[in-house]
Structures are given as C-alpha cells and as structure tokens.
C-alpha cells in the first residue's frame, strides 16, 4: 500500500502555480501518459498567475476543452470525466470550464447537481475564479411557463429533469423547458456534477432523462464530475459521450461493453481507467494520504447483549414459521412480495442491533479522543426517524421515552404485511371482479366463474351468473377441482378479486351464500370464512404480543442515544435529514422536539450546525447521508476549530458512492492536519455483510475511478469482501459438505459444542431456519442471501457457521494463488530490479480518431532474478530451529557443466502450516507448493550448511541462463531442436501490450483465452532500465513449471 500513490504534477500542461496541497495519483494511472496538449486556453493570465486556478485544475480544464473538439462517429461531441477525489477542487475546475467557454462566446451552460442549495456553491466557485459576471439561475425558481434569461448558468437538480406541471402552458415538463432554452444547436457546456447520482440510468426516470438530454443536444460539451464516477461498470451507462461503446468502437452497445468488463473482473476495469486517460477523456487525482490513518476496531459483545440478540434471533425464527403457516392457511400462491418484505425487515432489524452493539465502545473511544484534544465526526446512514414518528402519531403527538427502531421494524412488518385475506385480492380495471360460484352436485361443490361489476356499496351489478341445471344432493363437502391453482385445501382457492388488493397473483374467493330452487341447485357465495380469519388474527396478535415483550429489552434509537451520551443537542452538531428528535431535558424527563429553529429550514439548520462545529462551539458532529455532499468538516486553515478530526464510522453506508462522499467530508484541501478514520465492526459474523457490501463497491470504485483497485480510502475493509467468485465457491463447498456430496479438506471450526458431527447436524437445522434450500443450493443459496440471513442466527451459531465459510473462502484463494489462477490486480514485475529493458517495440495505430491514442506492443526482456543467493539462504537457515528444518540434498545427482561435475540438487526446508514445509531452491526461490516431510525424505536427505553450499552456489549460477533439464542431464532436447525452454530458469521473458488497449480489447482477450484457457488478463507495471514506466497486459504468459 505504501507505493499505491505517487505525487502528481501536470505532465503536459505547464501553466499555472502549484496546488496548495499535496496531490497524488495512483501508481498505475501515473504510468500512462495523457495525450499531448493542442488546445489554446482563453482564461485571463491574471486568473492563472494569481493562483485562482491551480496548475492541476488548469490541466483538467485544458483536457476537457480539448476533448470537446472531438466529434464521435455517432455525430455527438465527445465528453470528459473529471474523477478527482473529494477536496481537490472539482467545483473550481468546473467553474473554469464554464468560464473558458463563456470567453469563447458560448454564453449558456447547464449545471446539474444533487441539491438546490449547491447553487450557492456554484456561485461561490465562479466568484472565486474572478467570474462573478456569469449569472447563475436556479431552475426551481423559474415557473414552467416562463423562459430563462438569454445567458448564464441554468442550475438544476437531477430530480428536476423529471419534473412535470399539472397545469397547462408552454412547458409541461422541466426537460422540455431546458431544451427550449438551449435550442437544438446548443454547443455550450453541460455539467453533470456528482454524476454518480445518475447511475442505473436505464432503470430510473432520472437516469433516462440524463441520457435523453445528451441525445437531444448532440453538440453540447458534456462534463461528468464526481469523486466516485461509477462504483460499478453497469453504472457507467449514463456516460454515453465518452465514446467507449457505440458506433465506431469495439462494443456495439453498452451491454456488450458491460459483459466484456464484468466477465474479466477488476483487471478489466483497471484497463478502462488507464485507457480513458491515455485517450484524453479522463483525469483523476486526489489529496495525499500523508498523515491519514485508518484502522478497524472490532467490538466485543457483553453477555447481556448476546442474550438479547439470541432472544431476537429465536423470535424471528418463530415469526418465519408463523408467517409460513398463515400463508399456507390462506393458500397464498404468489409469496414473492411477502418474503421480500419479511427478509428486508429482518435485515434492517439486525442491522440496528449490529449498530447498537457498538454504541458503548464508540462513546468510550470518542471520549478518549476528546480528552486528547481532538474532535469527533460520527458517520451514520439511518436516523430511525420513521419509527419515532410512528410512535408519535400513536400517542397523539406526545412522546416521553426513547424509541427502539429495531422494535418498530419488527412491529411494522407484522402489522402491515402479515398474511391476510387482503393480500389475496386483485385489483381489476373498473372495479371488475370475477364471481366464483360453487354448485353442489352429487355431494360435491363445483366451481363456475362469471364477471360482474361492483357498485360503491359493494353489491354486484350487471350480468349475473348462469346456473347450470344439475340435480342436487343434500349435505356433502366443498371440493375444489384439479384445475384450481390453489395450494391449499377446502374453499381456500384462487380467483381474481377485490379492488383493494396488494398483489397481482394473490387471489381470494369473493362469494355470497344464496339458495336457488332452479333445477334443485343451490349456490354458495361467501365473502370470508370467519374461523380462518379468526385464526390468522390470533396468530398475528400472538406475534405482536411477543414483539412487545422483547421490545422492552431491545436497544434504543442509536442517534438519540449518542446525542444523549455526549451531553445533548447543545454539545452535538447534528447534520442529518430528520425533522425532529427525542431529547432528555435538564429535569431528566424525555420529550420529542423539532430540530427546526425560528426562521430556518432543515437544510439551513444543517449549515448552522456545521458552523457551530467548525468554530469549535461543538466538538462532536454526527452526519448522515443528508450531510454527505457539499459540507466540509476538515480542519480548515480558515476556521477556528483546527483540532484533528477523528472520523468514526459506526454504520457503513450501503454503497461506495455514499461512503466516498461521507469520508470526503473530513479529508479536503487546505487542512491543517489529516483526519483519522476508525471503522467499528462488531464481533457479530453477520455484520460483515455490511462491510462486504461497501468493500466490494470500494474495490470496484478504486479500480474504475482511480485506475488501481487498491486506491480506495477504506482499503482496510478489503478483507471483508466476500461477494465475489470465491465467496460463491466457498458457499457451494460448505453446502455440498453438509449434504455429504464431497469430502471437504477444510475442517469444521474448533470449539463447537458436540464436535464435528454435531456441527454438521446443526448447520442443516440452521439452513432450514434461514429459509434456505439445501436441495437447490446452486440456485437458491446465493452469497448475498447467505450473508443476509446469517444475521438472524444466535451469536455463537452465526460465528461458527461464518468461520467455516471464511475458512473455505481463504482455502480457495490460497489454492488459486498456488496454481497461478488468482487475479492479483496490477502486478509489479521485478519491483526492486533495474535489469528491465525493452528488446523490441512495435507501434500499432488504432482505427478511429487520432486522439484515441495508439496501441504499442512492447516485447520486454525482463531480468527477474527469482533465485535465492547462498547468503540469503544461509541467513534464513540461521533463524530456523525445528529438527526437520534445514538444508537437504537429493539422492539423484545431475550433470553440471562446464566441468561436468555431478552434483545433487539442493533445497532449504522451513516448517509451514500443519505438517507441510515451505521449500526454497537456488533457482526459483520459494516454491509455490509446500511439501510434506514424507515426500521430501523420499527424494532428499538432510545435510549441514557446509555440505549444501557448493551445490547451492553451483545451481544458482548455472540456472541464470539454463533450464532444469540442462542442469540434470547436461543438455535439453527442446534447446537442441531450436525451441525455447524456460523451466527452472532464473531469467524470464514476457510480452506485454501497452497504450489504448480498449480498442483491441475483445480481439486480444479472445486470443489470450484461447491460448491460456483463462479469462484473467494480468495487468503488469514495470520500470525499464531507461527509467521509463509502463503499464500493460500480458499477452503471452510463460510456462511456470519448474
């Protein structure tokens, strides 16, 4: 990690003064150069020389404007992505791009961001670069029917793009109003600030509007600006102007691009970031991490909390059975929505418990930091306000106690979503219902169907059912024909029904009971079966009663408790989106109060609270997502409170987008000192679920946004990332081991009561309680579902099950590493060796625009000395102490030219895990596969260092340019036949591609996959003997046999 970043300075643009803070770029991105500068800047010299825009901000402006001169093959103007990290100054960079175009005569610009309040930041940024004459108009202040002024910046939020007016007039929608202001020939700037908010473009109205706007203004100069860019490749869909997919590219559509990248993992994403920089469409720098510290605090649980947690787990298991019983009683066929609600509530409930488990430890840690003269920033995502307001409404606006958010989630699930007759009704157009009529014939009730309309009173209108003439027997039971889609007995069949239903396929019979004498038939029409309704209600009420009892022991709302522990609202600066809170008064009583202050909105309250923190009036700040964009909390040189910030993350955000925004609040430009980050994770195995989500997103984010997966700020969380192929394979092995389908080499965790047999029996029971299918593990037991559901187990059970899962996870990774199949990200070739030189270089220009860069094939001979010299081997031997450790000579001897002396092979054995030994050899250093002592003793015998020295030095020298065959036999058949043999050699040769690889991506990857039978594209980084840096991709991997 120490070499992940290198200091950044503009490589091509040479104007401007240095940035006020140390800025870095990932080692990987620094290894690829941007294109030459051809653009001439119009920004006044006074603005440049005075440092209003720093050199690195000017470089971004120049490259953006240069890219805007390119017209893609689909006739749209190329766009530019600013991926600078939080605090580097994207706002001024964006303002500079607007100013540059304003000076070129393009007087209109669009600026989209996430909040209307950020309009003031936009005005400030323009003012800061001496461009106050460019007016900024807020779209939300302009009526739908009006037209904005003739020039300036039209500032709007992403949500405004989907705004519609119910009234008539010139413009019914905001997007039509915007397009009318721009005109079709618009060639001004469109800024998509915090552009990660437009992710999932095809699945949201907002995202589609972003794409639509770019399509309808093909000549607009588009700039995407965000510290996060896209946390996953699929979220790049809105960046249509980068020209990576579409006409004239290797990928016909975005889906083709997405498939190619996701298929080949993070290595492919690293190529994307590097390729974009080489092509001049992307730049990404961030503040130096010098002085920033990261650590993960794992929090232990006391016995009382474990007991409460275990009670909750048992009640949720009982609730699952009750829900299933109720659904069976009602004959619900479609239960997707029911279980969706159940498991989302289950996850939220235990998330609240995970957070609550850390509150006491957080307060203790924070108090120590406060006593050390620091100030605290606590990051949360959930405020628990919805539950507080529910209780407030239940008590007619009065509240005299702190509320448990966890209890509220559980109670709300049962109250609103417990299986009921209502869930079986289907809303039909025009209140049209199907009438199911039961007709009794020969002691059996038959079902017919007819349609009728229901008036406001609920009475049927229109055509009544025709009753077939059947002879009737008295008595008998109701029977449902085989054609019914019901999965239950008796009258609990399916039909289309009530207009106030919840689900399309969850139907219920709506019938009246009448007697018809026609033909001796009788008809049964019943709206509900009273005994069944009573049963369901009793089951529901029973659960609610148990939840109420448990609720007395559940932890209270975390945010309210934290504020109370730190001394109340007068001591804590709260920057969240909630409107009110529960506080303790001086007399000890508790009440609910509004956060609003006279004459201020909630957003303004957050700004006031920020000022109170920055002036030192308050030393503790609590921020939620509402404050994760646009608020700076760093130890700024311009503010009174310059104490070091300790940023404590109690609740990890659900996505990397939110995580980066929140972490960037305390690490920004112009700070006196860098922050300290502390991530609190409890010992609960299930909580790693939340760490896993963020770690996965941040790993992708680091690769795609900064060209190096190791670059993301919360890198200490990477060990908690289980949502990958190894997690899926590990879960598959766990499941098959339980079923006895395979013999697993990974032993069950030690310490489980009852031993291994009891452990596997216990897992089968746990699987059932988690509603996971052992029989359908391939499709049903996904890693996401497993990590979600494991939260609901008792503490010791979830920890043992999770331990077994992670042991399998680690085993699979270690196995792939040994077999050379592990994707190591960017690999440094010979990091400490200067003997790297270019033997041959061939240049291949790609098709398309000249600015797209070129693909260059470097054939690089690399003097990588894998071997271990005698001095190093002897030094390692001196540290060994076990009786079987030391030097070994082979019984078999080889021929060693030039003297033709016959010398045995030699190795050094070191005790590894278990009974295996790590093996070191003169020619290859550490051998990838460990060996057992029995295997060693069959071929080698133990010797003293003096006996081993000659063989070691001889083999070390000979293997520099000779293969193992020559060492054993004095010659190599392959060499004699004119072929190449690299087996056992110290010197290796590689071939790699460098440059704009995306252009030839598919063809190269197909060839590599065909040759190596692997989709892994190894990205390598090296520095040649001429001190040139290169980053590229292996095209031919050498045979690694020994």
Question: Notable features of this structure?
Answer:
30 helices; 35 strands; alpha/beta; histone binding; Rossmann fold; transcription; globular; Protein strawberry notch homolog 2; differentiation; single chain; seven-stranded parallel beta sheet; 1042 residues; activator; six-stranded parallel beta sheet
Kindly report how far apart the N and C termini lie.
31 Å
Principal-axes geometry comes out as globular
| CATH-scheme architecture of the largest domain | 3-Layer(aba) Sandwich
Radius of gyration: 34 Å
Strand content is 15-25%
- Which consecutive residue ranges, at least 5 long each, have pLDDT under 50? 426-529, 713-717, 773-779, 1035-1042
Report on the architecture of this protein.
It is a single chain. The protein is an alpha/beta fold and 1042 residues long. The strands form 7 sheets. Strands 5-6-4-7-8-3-9 form a 7-stranded parallel β-sheet. The chain folds into 6 domains: 68-243, P-loop containing nucleotide triphosphate hydrolases (Rossmann fold, 3-Layer(aba) Sandwich), CATH 3.40.50; 367-401 and 556-683, Rossmann fold (3-Layer(aba) Sandwich); 424-536, no CATH class; 725-818, no CATH class; 826-865 and 985-1036, no CATH class; 870-970, no CATH class. Helix 10 runs antiparallel to helix 15. It is globular and about 95 Å long. The two termini are 31 Å apart. Belongs to the SBNO family. Residues 473-483 have a biased composition (Low complexity). It holds the Pfam family Helicase_C_4. InterPro entries: Helicase_C-like, P-loop_NTPase, SBNO_a/b_dom, SBNO_Helicase_C_dom, SNO, SNO_AAA. GO terms for molecular function: chromatin DNA binding; histone binding.
């Amino acid at each position: 990690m120490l070499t992940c970043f290198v200091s950044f300075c503009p490589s091509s643009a040479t104007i401007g003064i240095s940035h006020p803070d140390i800025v870095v770029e990932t080692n990987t991105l620094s290894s690829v150069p941007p294109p030459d500068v051809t653009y001439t800047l119009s920004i006044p010299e006074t603005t440049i020389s005075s440092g209003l825009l720093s050199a690195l901000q000017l470089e971004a402006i120049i490259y953006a404007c240069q890219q805007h001169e390119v017209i893609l093959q689909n006739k749209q103007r190329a766009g530019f992505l600013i991926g600078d990290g939080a605090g580097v100054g994207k706002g001024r960079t964006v303002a500079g791009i607007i100013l540059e175009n304003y000076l070129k005569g393009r007087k209109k610009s669009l600026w989209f961001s996430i909040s209307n309040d950020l309009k003031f930041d936009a005005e400030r940024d323009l003012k800061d670069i001496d461009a106050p004459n460019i007016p900024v108009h807020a779209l939300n202040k302009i009526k739908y029917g009006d037209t904005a002024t003739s020039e300036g910046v039209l500032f709007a939020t992403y949500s405004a793009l989907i705004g519609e007016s119910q009234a008539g007039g010139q413009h019914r929608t905001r997007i039509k109003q915007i397009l009318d202001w721009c005109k079709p020939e618009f060639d001004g700037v469109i800024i998509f600030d915090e552009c990660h908010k437009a992710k999932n473009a095809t699945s949201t109205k907002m995202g589609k509007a972003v794409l639509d706007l770019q399509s309808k203004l093909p000549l607009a100069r588009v700039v995407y600006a965000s510290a996060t860019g896209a946390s996953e490749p699929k979220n790049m869909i809105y960046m249509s102007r980068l020209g990576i997919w579409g006409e004239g590219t290797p990928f016909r559509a975005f889906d083709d691009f997405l498939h190619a990248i996701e298929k080949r993992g993070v290595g492919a994403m690293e190529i994307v970031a590097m390729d974009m920089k080489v092509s001049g469409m992307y730049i990404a720098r961030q503040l130096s991490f010098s002085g920033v510290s990261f650590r993960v605090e794992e929090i232990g649980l006391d016995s009382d909390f474990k007991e409460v947690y275990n009670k909750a787990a048992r009640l949720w298991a009982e609730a699952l059975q009750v829900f299933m019983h109720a659904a069976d009683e009602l004959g619900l066929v479609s239960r997707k929505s029911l279980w969706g609600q159940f498991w989302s509530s289950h996850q939220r409930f235990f998330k609240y418990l995970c957070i609550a488990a850390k509150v006491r430890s957080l307060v203790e840690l924070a108090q120590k930091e406060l006593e050390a003269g620091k100030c605290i920033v606590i990051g949360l995502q959930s405020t628990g306000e919805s539950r507080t307001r529910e209780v407030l409404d239940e008590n007619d606006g009065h509240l005299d106690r702190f509320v448990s958010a966890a209890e509220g989630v559980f109670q709300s699930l049962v109250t609103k979503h417990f299986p009921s007759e209502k869930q079986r009704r289907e809303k039909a157009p025009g209140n049209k219902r199907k009438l199911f009529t039961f007709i009794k014939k020969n002691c059996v009730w038959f079902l017919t169907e007819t349609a009728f309309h229901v008036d406001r009173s609920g009475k049927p209108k229109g055509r009544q059912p025709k009753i077939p003439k059947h002879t009737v027997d008295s008595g008998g039971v109701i029977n449902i024909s085989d054609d019914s889609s019901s999965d239950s007995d008796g009258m609990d069949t399916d039909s289309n029904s009530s207009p106030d239903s919840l689900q399309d396929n969850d139907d219920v019979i709506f019938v009246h009971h009448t007697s018809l004498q026609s033909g001796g038939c009788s008809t049964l029409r019943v709206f509900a079966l009273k005994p069944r309704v009573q049963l369901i209600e009793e089951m529901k009420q029973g659960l609610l009663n148990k939840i109420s009892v448990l609720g007395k022991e559940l932890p209270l709302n975390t945010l309210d408790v934290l504020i109370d522990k730190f001394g109340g609202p007068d001591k804590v600066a709260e920057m969240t989106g909630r409107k009110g809170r529960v506080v303790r008064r001086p007399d000890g009583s508790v009440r609910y109060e509004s956060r609003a202050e006279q004459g201020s909105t909630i957003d303004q309250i957050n700004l006031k609270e920020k000022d109170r923190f920055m002036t030192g009036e308050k030393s503790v700040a609590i921020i939620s997502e509402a404050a994760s964009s646009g608020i700076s909390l760093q130890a700024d040189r311009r503010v009174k409170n310059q104490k070091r910030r300790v940023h404590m993350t109690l609740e990890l955000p659900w996505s990397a987008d939110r995580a980066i925004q929140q972490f960037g609040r305390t690490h920004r430009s112009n700070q006196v000192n860098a922050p300290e980050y502390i991530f609190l994770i409890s010992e609960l195995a299930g909580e790693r679920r939340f760490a896993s989500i963020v770690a996965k997103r941040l790993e992708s984010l680091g690769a795609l946004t900064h060209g190096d997966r190791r670059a993301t700020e919360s890198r200490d969380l990477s060990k908690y990332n289980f949502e990958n192929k190894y997690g899926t394979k590990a879960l598959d092995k766990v499941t098959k081991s339980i079923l006895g389908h395979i013999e697993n080499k990974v032993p069950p965790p030690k310490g489980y009561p009852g031993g291994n047999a009891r452990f596997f029996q216990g897992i089968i029971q746990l699987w059932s309680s988690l509603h996971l299918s052992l029989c359908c593990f391939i499709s049903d037991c996904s890693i996401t579902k497993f990590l979600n559901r494991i939260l609901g187990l008792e503490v010791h059970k979830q920890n043992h099950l999770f331990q077994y899962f992670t042991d399998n996870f680690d085993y699979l990774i270690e196995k792939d590493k040994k077999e050379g199949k592990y994707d190591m990200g960017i690999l440094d070739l010979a990091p400490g060796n200067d003997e790297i030189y270019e033997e041959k270089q061939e240049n291949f220009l790609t098709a398309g625009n000249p600015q797209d860069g070129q693909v260059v094939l470097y054939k690089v001979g690399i003097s990588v000395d894998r071997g271990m010299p005698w001095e190093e081997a002897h030094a390692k031997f001196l540290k060994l102490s076990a009786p079987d450790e030391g030097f070994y000579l082979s019984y078999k001897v080889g021929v060693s030219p030039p003297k033709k002396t016959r010398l045995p092979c030699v190795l050094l054995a070191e005790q590894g895990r278990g009974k295996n030994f790590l093996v070191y050899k003169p020619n290859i250093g550490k051998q990838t596969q460990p060996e057992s002592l029995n295997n060693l003793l069959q071929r080698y015998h133990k010797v003293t260092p003096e006996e081993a020295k000659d063989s070691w030095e001889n083999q070390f020298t000979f293997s520099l340019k000779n293969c193992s065959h020559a060492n054993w036999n004095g010659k190599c058949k392959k060499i004699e036949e004119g072929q190449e043999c690299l087996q056992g050699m110290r010197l290796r040769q590689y071939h790699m591609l460098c440059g704009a690889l995306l252009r030839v991506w598919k063809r190269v990857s197909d060839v590599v996959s065909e040759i190596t039978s692997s989709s892994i594209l190894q990205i390598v980084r090296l520095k040649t003997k001429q001190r040139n840096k290169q980053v590229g991709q292996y095209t031919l991997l050498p045979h690694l046999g020994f």
